[in-house]
Amino acid sequence: MKAVQYRTVGGEPEVVEVPVPEPGPGQVLLKVTAAGLCHSDLAVMGWPAEQFPYALPLTLGHEGAGTVAAVGSGVTGVTEGDDVAVYGPWGCGHCRKCAEGKENCCPHAAGLGIMPPGLGSPGALAEYMVVDSPRHLVPLHGLDPAQAAPLTDAGLTPYHAIRKSLPKLVPGSTAVVIGVGGLGHLAVQLLRGLTSARVVALDVSKEKLALAQTVGAHETLRSDGEAAARIRELTGGVGAEVVLDFVGVEATLAVAAAVVAVEGDVTVVGIGGGTLAVGFGGGLPFEVSASAPYWGSRVELMEVVELARQGLVSSHVETFSIEDAPAAYARLHAGEINGRAVVLPHG
Ligand code: NAD
Ligand code: ZN
Asked: Quick one: which ligand is closest to 152's CA?
């Protein structure tokens, strides 16, 4: 089968021929119907050799949807032919966090060598993939796989981030979304669908700001030196109750710190490497909570899929063949993908 692999540190992703994997006991083989390309994959492919945490070659893709093609011994709950989305942040399955469905917070996964597909384990950018357990599969109930694949990260991660701020997103509040790419364009829709907050979207690209407006942002602003002052003005000097930063560089975190309201939330999702100082004299208004969340829980993925089935959120996608996956990564790197790039391995 064809798979998109990162093979050497510093190299380009390549389409290669590899054997179709076989599901072991407890595992499920999926025929991959769609796989999303995430900016995190570019970050991974930018890490230097001495920090590189995964074995190579690595089949990429941590956003997947597929059809159950075969099950290993002992598997119950799924049947050949089921259409599913893949929950990615696999945990040990036994601890307190995993019992709550928060496998993204499992404290044992790393120590046990359990790694997400595409981020250590063979990923979804292939014609077939093995999923460690049927508990990582969420039924699509008719949702289009190309729509569903981005929900597993680009939808789930902002959903998880926004959910914890819901009590602050009351009528009259403001939410700022910095970076309206794969995650950000779904964040705007989630904010509109789940809250009555005014949504202000920031980006450096005109096309991304146009998409932000199409998917429901009330205000769109260029992410530049004027942005913080404009947001202060728009909020009558109060600031934004919630700031979601999907870039996470020093410049965007400075905007977040400058516009967050007293008692607000700054949520750093982007892995741009910037940091925010927290502490008296650190520059944040009183009572602000700052966090850097990771992915989301199993039940949250079920909820995001349900929101998409109800039509409250929809992924804006550009689809590619598996042969074109390296070119799609190059376009993502150049900032030329609006919404999410999704590979359809079987056309
Ligand atoms: P993307 O490339 O699709 O979108 C990024 C967007 O940010 C683009 O629209 C780009 O134009 C915009 N942007 C770049 N610089 C900007 C600036 N200075 N101000 C405003 N906008 C700017 O990326 P994505 O796949 O949506 O991922 C977004 C970020 O989230 C990445 O850093 C990714 O690694 C990270 N991520 C984190 C998690 C997590 O669990 N914390 C999960 C998935 C992705
Ligand atoms: Zn991702």
From this structure: 2
